[in-house]
Amino acid sequence: MLRTSLLAVALAVPAAARLPDPVLRMDASPALRELLGAAADAAVDVPALPGQELDALGRPVSAETRREYERILRSLNGKTLRPSEYDLILALLNQPPLPPGPFKDREALARWFAKQGVGLRQTGGNLADSDLWRLVRAARAASVAYRIPPAILMCLTFRESAFNRGASAWTTSAKGVGQLTNGAVSDMVARIQRDPELGRQTREYASLLGASMPTRFVGAPDVDALTKELAELKKNGAPAAEVAAKKKARAAAIAAHKDEPGHIFNIETNFGLTASYLATLRRSRLSEVTAEDKGWYTAVAAYNQGVGTANELIYKVYPGPAAYNAAPLAEIFSTPVAARLALSHERQEEMLGEVGSVLRCAGR
After folding, report:
1. What is the mean pLDDT of residues 170-194?
2. Is residue 168 within 8 Å of residue 175, measured between CB atoms?
3. 168, β-bridge pairs
4. Distance between CA 106 and CA 306 in Å, rounded?
């Protein structure tokens, strides 16, 4: 039997959050219908037959999906996955496909995550059962609303947080699935308010999920304060028990915001802001990069080190868009080229690691 441990959780979610799948929405925009109409597998959204298996989102599993799922499991050569990993792979496969662009399609991406695993390196439990269905739906809605290739968005957030919705950096203000800093969140909330197209995309994203997006920047001052207090305790050599108690209080503060609409630690909010930021980088700030794959990988570099670094690559390391567009991707994101940027060696390595990870995950 395929694992379906999240069915009860998905069905227990308040009815307001369980909107019909976007493919069934009659009020969908023309762009949304174009994306979803012809590509959708009707078997995903029809009622389940008696005894038919359901995925982690409570949807019927078609015979074709099950065959693909079993092919992926066989390709693992006996490797055992965590229950949440089985559920993630099945949920990824059992949803209407979206155009992949020059990146991995739905099946190839599921295969990648199955082989890589999605557990945190240290805790082994990044994907809580109550979070999985929200993660998958948010990723798909963000890809549709902001026109981001699904593989790019999933691979970037996997690199940033390993899908840990409660991730919070110790040395910066980065938070959530997309590890957005306070500055990035503040900037995006303001942009959404003043940019009509970005505002429309954000409303569409929220409507697909029955979610709320912030209209002003608030952040998580309680978590930030506890992070500073914890840093001071460590700096001053405080007793281990006192440090542990402060860590526990910080974790509880993060968890308390999980279901708070519009909060940075809310999965739907964080995913939407991550997607809007990435889409803005690609289309508004780096539109001179013509190739789709190079454009998105350049946006990933900007997401990691700032748009100034991406512009430095295009206009200083290379003498302008024509030369940049003509250069091979492997050359652009190489150690010799990164060494010419006004970045420390550590930040050069961080950028190359981010782009390289997303490229291996998302690239065909």
Report:
1. 94
2. yes
3. 175
4. 29
pLDDT bracket for residue 196 (50, 70, 90): very high
pLDDT band at 130 (very low <50, low <70, confident <90, very high): low
What pLDDT, on the 0 to 100 scale, is given for residue 50?
81
Q: Are residues 129 and 250 in the same domain?
A: no
CA–chain centroid gap for 265, Å, is 13
Domain assignment present for residue 87? The answer is yes
Q: What six digits make up the tokens of 300?
A: 């990933």
Averaged over 307-330, what is the pLDDT? 98
Statement to judge: residues 13 and 157 lie in one domain: yes
For residue 168, pLDDT over 50 is answered with: yes
Based on the domain organization, do 19 and 157 belong to the same domain?
Answer: yes
Which of the four pLDDT bands, split at 50, 70 and 90, describes residue 166? confident
Name the residue among 135, 170, 145, 150 with its Cα closest to residue 266. 135
Question: Do the Cβ atoms of 92 and 113 come closer than 8 Å?
Answer: yes
Average pLDDT, the chain: 84
Q: Are 93 and 44 in contact (CB under 8 A)?
A: no
Task: Assess whether pLDDT exceeds 90 at residue 38.
Answer: no
Give the CA distances from residue 230 to residues 223, 226, 237, 245, 258, in Å, rounded to whole numbers and listed in that order.
10, 6, 11, 10, 21
Same domain, 115 and 247: no
Asked whether the beta carbons of 264 and 219 are under 8 A apart, the reply is yes
One domain, residues 235 and 323: no
Tokens 């010419």 appear where?
Answer: 340
User: Per DSSP, what are the bridge partners of residue 54?
Assistant: 60
**What are 8-21's pLDDT values in tens digits?**
222 223 223 333 33
- For residues 242 and 226, the answer to whether their CB atoms sit within 8 Å is no
Last residue of a domain, one of 234, 256, 278: 256
Pure H helices in 37-181: 63-75, 83-93, 106-116, 129-146, 150-161
- Write out the residue range of the structural domain in which residue 229 sits: 221-256
d(CA 163, CA 171): 20
Q: How many independent structural domains does the chain possess?
A: 3
The total number of residues written for the chain in this structure: 364
H helix count then E strand count, the chain? 18, 0
